[in-house]
Fold each of these.
Amino acid sequence: MDRPVHKRDYRGKFDAVSTTADPTPKGRPRSFDRDGVLDTLIHLFWENGYEATSLTDIVEATGLNKSSLYNAFGPKEVLLREALSRYVSLRSTAIAAVLIDGTAGLADIHALFDLLWQEFYDNGDRRGCLSVNCSTELGPLDDGVAAVSLAYRSATRNAFRTALTRAADHGEIAPQFVETYANLCLTTMLGLAVVVRSGADADEVLFHVDAFRQALDSWKLS
């Protein structure tokens, strides 16, 4: 069931989001570090969702009192948007390291899906994607969340487009399909996050990953 990552090892950068600082032990205040607080909030909202995360949970996890949190960030909805923006920034950088900074074409896309699989399988991480989770829970109700999620989708689509343009330049795929394939890659990646969040087991997740791999290889001209 396990499978190796393709050629270059991107795991250090890609794991940056999952390995941001875990929440501070309850009842233990931390010296104020904005990014550290946001990293804690990322994990909290990612694990529980927005509505199920109370201000008491946030206070206990960060070690900061309500007034300090409000003065530094604002109300709960702003805390979410700030945490989501940091998550999207970290995640987009990690994706770009594979797809934009890569030198191959389709192999770089294979590498990204290797990493998505390894992230799930190695860590038993069933949280899915914070951006997808927030957009499905709050997107229609919160313009700020919707805007951040849209920016993430646009950046990710562009990263896929860049890798696919390289694939076309290398003669792997027909150039007229770059935009179509970029949209399919994005839809598959976001859909996979929903499947993972739904509680799917490793066999089901791997079934979807392998189905996409076969589709990806079918795009090759030869």
Amino acid sequence: MTRQEVAQKIDLAVLRPDATCNDVLQGCEQARKWNVKSLVVLPFWLELIVRELEGSGVVPSTVIAFPFGAETTEVKVATAKWAVQVGAGELDMVMAIGRFKSGDYEFVRKDIEAVVKAAKRLNSDAIVKVIIETAYLTDDEKRKAAQIVEAAGADFVKTSTGFAPSGATVEDVRLLRQSVSEKVKVKAAGGIRTWEQAKALLEAGADRIGTSSAEAILIGCRGG
């Protein structure tokens, strides 16, 4: 892959709880400079990046129920509607992890489905990615969660928030890729800081990389 092809597989994340307005503006600058696919920020920065990224080709994105997935379905749906109306093209929502670990799979499916339907009703091109937080799941649970994500109509299953004890691994990406059909893509995120890590994850089947280190990764990529 060329460097630009790699850039189009990267979601640059500015999601630290202490990230300032200046940090977010620097994220916009970096996203434009490297022409990454998307810039992902906390909801209260979304309107800022929508303005800053206008005309750049970088997709403004935000998170839903981040990082614990513990908001009610009604709150998740309201946030999704607001975000799409403001201008978000992609939403990264966190699965209801505690409900999943409790075996309440139907609740989890309906929770995701409600967000997907709300977003796509306003913008049929909106992309919804679901973070299952692999650090807290067994391999069997990872497979089950990925299958629920697909059944709910989401576009991506995503490994991690980056705030759990561990992040993306090659093994988890392979497992998720094998657990869903080709209709569902896989996003690897959490602890990805080098080109070598990103390359291994892409080769394992990741369609998208979530990282706060896009510049370092792309400098390390010598594809073009």
Amino acid sequence: MRIVHIAMCCAFAAMLAGGQIMFKFASADVQVQIKRSLWAALLSPWLLAALFLYLVTAGLWIWILTKVPLSRAYPFSMLGAALVPVLAHYIFGETLPPTFLIGIALVLAGLVFVQMP
């Protein structure tokens, strides 16, 4: 894979992770807004921003798939899955037990392994 494709796949993974963090913020905001009205909850800025980011992420994914085989691009989604717990630890103070860190390291090693020629 070309470096630009790897960069785009990494950006895709980061956007997936960012979307999950935004959905977590949205969940707290929706809980507050729903007490006002359903519309207030549906128009939560965090929720709208997360949905917009996912729309942009889907567009990037479609572009990636025009350039990179699915079998080479899809493993990068696991990078997003590894980033979310790390971000949740730093942003929300969620715990990351050592076994979780080992699992994340294995996911990252697997990504490197499957990308080797």
Amino acid sequence: MSAHRTHFARLALAGAVVLALCTVVHAQTTSYPTKPVRLVVGFTAGGPTDVVARAFAEFAARMLGQPFVVDNKPGANTILAAEAVASAPADGYTLLVGATNHTMIPALYSARVKFDAVKSFAPVCTVAISPTVLVVGPAMKTPTLAAFLQQVKAAPGKHTYATPGPGSSGHFASEQFTRLTGTSMTHIPYKGATQAVTDLMGGQVDSSFATLGSVLPQVQAGKLTALVVAAPQRSKLLPQVPTFDESGVKGFRADAWYGLLAPAGTPSAVLAALEKTAQAFAQASATQEKLRGLGLDAQSVCGPAFNTQLQREVQGYSQIAKDLNLKLD
């Protein structure tokens, strides 16, 4: 065999080896998933995050052909679940179904957290949002945000707002609101949303920033009045309630999200498959109908946009917690 023929034979062999390796890698990534996928949830079964996770698991299993199994891992305000996913292999088979409180963890628990709420994860997509609404009870009958602000500004510190507890999403939303509007109100913390809503209806407290799902039945029954929704668009569940922007308070947003995060370093092909599935899930009419029953709206913010949202929330919550000297470690 001539030297030229030998050289070309070697090149051909090398090319075949490279092609074979590329084919194997391509098969490994594009055939995802090839085994069951674990969805870790930092709450007990039955809550909104768990319900969203189970609905997504059922949809993803049908779309991708492998079981998606929900693993409830409650404890330490979802820190245990987030730690489990942050330390898992970055192969797409252990995922976190998280919610807005994920970005509050650095603000409240910096001394005990072993992961970075943003850098330790590859954000896939949000799949649902729960609009936050400003509601008032019989103790403060104001039909509009303008009337509410007029009363609050006339008596600084006199009026009260209820939250499910210090460091909750309602607490942060309320603090953001008072800073933006230059108002002063007294915080009345509760041990959960149920008692806060009960006392709001009973007139023991004046107002509350609450997730729509937690107060929708009371609003629909006329027991509470929703003045405004803290989201970019009106909610389909309460289309008559205006947004803050429409009501003259620009740039205030406090909607709670539910979404999917993978460990940092997860292959891009795997993330692409998950993103496509999450978007299809949010767009499905069956999903939208199910979420509406929980007071949620389907929505998918994916990839870099989701990452930017996470960074913005971590910075905002951390600043508020620092200003309030609020730590729950």
